[in-house]
Amino acid sequence: MIQDDKPLLRSMMGKQIWKLMRTDEEKFKRETRAYFALRYPGWTVVKVKYPIVFLRDDRGA
Predict the structure, then answer these.
(1) Is there a contact between 51 and 14 (Cβ–Cβ < 8 Å)?
(2) pLDDT at position 10
(3) Helix (H) or strand (E) holding 2
(4) What is the mean pLDDT of each run of 10 residues along the chain (61 residues)?
(5) What is the pLDDT of residue 61?
(6) Out of the domains of life, which is the source (predicted)?
(7) Which among 23, 28, 54, 56 would be 20 to 30 A from 46, CA to CA?
(8) How far apart are CA 54 and CA 3, in angstroms?
(9) 46: burial class by Cβ within 10 Å (0-12, 13-18, 19+)?
(10) Contacts of 59 by beta carbon, 8 Å cutoff, 6+ apart
């Protein structure tokens, strides 16, 4: 998958965050962003499709 001529990184995350997707969508979004901000600084979540999260490399952008 390519967006803006940059390939996207495909990653996964724990089930505890995925469970929020069904119960609290806003908390799910916050937790997903926080999870990847900590583990992949400079990368931005651009798409989520269970079980894959697509990240864009914004380091140096």
Answers:
(1) no
(2) 97
(3) strand 2-3
(4) 73 97 96 97 96 94 65
(5) 65
(6) Bacteria
(7) 23
(8) 11
(9) middle
(10) 41, 42, 43
Residue that the structure tokens 């990240």 belong to: 55
Which residue type occupies 54? F
Matching residue, tokens 């952008």:
61
CB atoms inside a 10 Å sphere around CB 9: 15
Question: Omega into 51 within 30° of 0, i.e. cis?
Answer: yes
Contacts 24+ apart (CB under 8 A), 56-61: 56/3, 56/4, 56/6, 56/8, 56/9, 57/6, 57/9
DSSP-derived secondary structure letter, 40: S
CA distance 48 to 6: 17
**Which of 45, 36, 47, 43 minimizes the C-alpha distance to 58?**
43
